[in-house]
Amino acid sequence: MKKYNVVVVGATGLVGRTLLRVLEERKLPIAGLRLIASEKSIGKKLTVFGKEYVVEGLGKESFKGCDFAFFCAGSKVSEQYVPLAAKHSIVIDNSSAFRMNPDIPLVVPWINGELALGKKIIANANCSIIPCVTVLKTLDERFCLTKVNYTTYQAVSGSGFKGINDLMRTRTGEKPLFYPQPIASTCIPLIGDAITSGDTSEEKKMKDETKKILNRFDLKVSATCVRVPVFYCHGIVVSLETKEKFNLSDVKNLFSEIPKVIVKDDLRKNDFPTSLDGYDNDNIYVGRIREDETRENGLLFYVLADNLRIGAASSSVAIMEYIINHQK
User: Domains in the chain, ordered, with CATH?
Assistant: First the structure.
């Protein structure tokens, strides 16, 4: 079996560290591993596959001899170094830098993994979008979606260590250093930057990426994204409208047949998705499934998943796995 040389950029961040753990779990055929991070992390040591690795800085020589490069360091780093890395390796980018580039595939591997084959740069989707489109893809194929509305409840780990530290800090009454308000005491309906349409950049990602992944650029999508005082797992309320009529029991059966999806939908037994279910695994939990009477053929449900794993690291590694398994 061929073995591969891998570079992880942003290896000391939350997504980077999670990605390294997923690589260990999946037991992929890795020959060599290079860990890259910012200047403040150079020289740190991380243990992966039972071996100690020294974190290096990012430079023009970082990708020579590399087969796969994972980028987990934000859009600015990706914009500068992904094109360079792609000269030497296949790049799987977790940032938003290239997601809406028409020449670069936006891949959720269990939905459209074939788009990654033969490409040098592959964009991994937004951490809230991945669990949602996993469910929406099946609904669209069966009932034809016409409208989708998201309300997200996103954990502070989506902001990295700065978000986690701000929640811990404000829990003790200290002032926030990262969020505009003390996140321990309030939800914050602002994720990303404000843009001229009245949306935030995060909300625009939700809209644009849904359309691209589903290949439904005619689909009407809206989103409101809220940061909540929870450490891990993003929850998303999805309200949608379909062209075709549906039976609610058929929908629940469809959900239960989707790979990775676990249905938790019995209020009488307090059975519904929570962060306690989603934390540190690669399942997508769906519950609170019911008709939405404000829409014709309306459906309402709640989706939850671990934003660091299925929403980022695990899906990135799954892209690598898909490519390896489908190489000629």
Answer: 4-125+312-326 (3.40.50.720), 129-155+187-307 (3.30.360.10)
